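To whoever picks this up:

The parser on our side crashed when reading a file containing two proteins. I've narrowed it down to the boundary between the first structure block and the second sequence. Both blocks are reproduced below exactly, byte for byte. First block:
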Amino acid sequence: MVKFLIDTNVFIQAKNFHYQFCFCEKFWNLILDLHERNILYSVKSVFYELTISNNKDELANWVTNNRPESFWLDHDKAASKYTEVINWAHNSQKFQEKAISDFADYDTADAWLVSYAAQFDYSIISQEKSNPDAKKKIYLADVAKEFNVPYFTIYEFLTKYTKPDFCYK
């Protein structure tokens, strides 16, 4: 069975745009259902990114109150792969130092998502697009490709794995 890790930006964009809580409850129920089926998870660094603000918005409240603790995987379990991913960024000779330091920030989710997915055979769902020529930022899609981690946008995922009514196929 394919398992997925969901990125911070999927939650944020869903809340802000197409799948707002007030009119698309089925999307949020799908997330809960997919986790109950042992298909969808995220890493604790995504939880931190979503809840770091002192202004607890609707999304921060939802991830805090509606997600079981088992949804948030301990990214530290992928520490050896994380070292490999960070070393790849440092050794690439392609990225500016600021891009590398931002990517390697322990509290930032992208490197942890790729590390966990690569080490434990997950796919990633994110809204971040590939930009292989970038020097000022390291893009999650490009790192996933480098480490042979399958990568989906939320729309690709929904098309492939769900019915039009947000039920799992």
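<<boundary where parser fails>>
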Amino acid sequence: MAPARTAAQLKEYNRKRDFKKTAEPEGAIYSKKSKRLEFVVQKHEASHLHYDIRLEVDGVMKSWACPKGPSFDTSVKRLAVQVEDHPTSYNSFEGKIPHGQYGGGTVMVWDMGYYTVDDLGKGEDPEKKMREGLEKGKLAFTFHGKKLRGSFTLVRTRIAPGSSKPQWLLIKHRDDEADPSYDPVADEAVSAKTKRTMSEIETEGDVYGEKPKTKSKAKAKTSVASKKKIASSSEKEVYLKPRDRDRQTEVIRESIKAKRGIGRSTKNAISTALKPMLVHKTPELLEGTEYVYEQKLDGVRLIAYTDGDKWTVISRLGNDKSAQFPEIGESLKKLSKRAGGPIILDGEVIAIDKKGLPLGFQELQGRIHLDDREAVQAEIKATPVDFYIFDVLLVGEVSLLDEKMIDRREVLEKLFAKGKYPHLKINPIEKSAKKMKARAIKGDWEGLIIKDIHSPYLPGVRTKNWLKWKMVKREELIICGWTAPRGTRKHIGSLLLGYYS
């Protein structure tokens, strides 16, 4: 049961808002409907874009404004400024706050779900542990959301000069969900609640209950229709709306015809950059004739554009990485000349060892942000790379976005059938899950990518037609005994384990 101080905690929230002008919910107390502790992350385009992270504690939502949003990279520390507590009813708010009001701008329910408190003892009250963590300045919890999953920590650092707001750092813990190559802020652009983009929310407003007096009958009908549309959408639906897919396909076709962005300025390159198709995680290695399997690589995902003597490679965040990986350029140009026109490829730059075998992402960290030519040349020798290609999106004037994955693969293999292209490789595929799993175990791979052979290429969409399966290494051990504690240790010094050999 929430403490009596809860009502006082919402005074600051209520003081800052004029509820006659904003559709935000008033700061009232509601009886708890679930034993689970809720969390919500709201993308907020106010004076500055930021992500509001809210955790339920004692009947209110403890809130932090995170300018850059959460990261799945354990080496990244994201600033999170603690702000006033919000009511739990705010968790469902998505819409527009009028300009001139506190926080004026567009709000999206970017992610939602529940969280659990880490390292909770048997019978221990999770909210009590959160209260203690808030007082001590360190929280550890696990998100169970639609986008955010896994363990995170919030660590208080200081209060900025001239501010009464405590500053914290949001950090991803090392676990199976950690993934430095996955950027949820860049990849997840639609609402977890309504599947709308920020621009759609800004245009349509809050379809879940703007004040009736501000609506015309026509707008009211639109909102009802929007409600029905959203309610009927399936959680498993992963494709773009038909009109969005058609528009995106047409944009890329026209941009290639105009040959904009290839070999020109970074600004132009970004303006025509496709976002790569993304994968979902799966705990099981799916088997079937409708799937093919390839090695899960651990590098930098890039979309390569090449047309004759012009080429560029663009990262998932829209950054031109041509200067960091110049050695792949000559082969890309050679490939385009052989094809007789522009080509767009999807792949991953991988650091390789002396035998040409893939290494981990950490080997690239000293190179991916270099902008000094001499430093890059030194890294070319110290950290050689290959560009592993797994998809082709355009050849000549023909877009392959709507073609089946297996048909695109055939086109890709024909492109490489004759000729040698240093630093370019096709990531091999296998039709047998068992054979590929055996190779993964022998090669100590991180995991496999599972692809539906019938899937089209959906730029920027996280689809279940592509799945990521990570290998979990396990070992059975027997606890044979223990040693007595020494020094400051209590209870047990160490465990003695037995291993079957």
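After patching the parser it read the second block fine. The first helix runs from residue 6 to 9. The mean pLDDT is 82.
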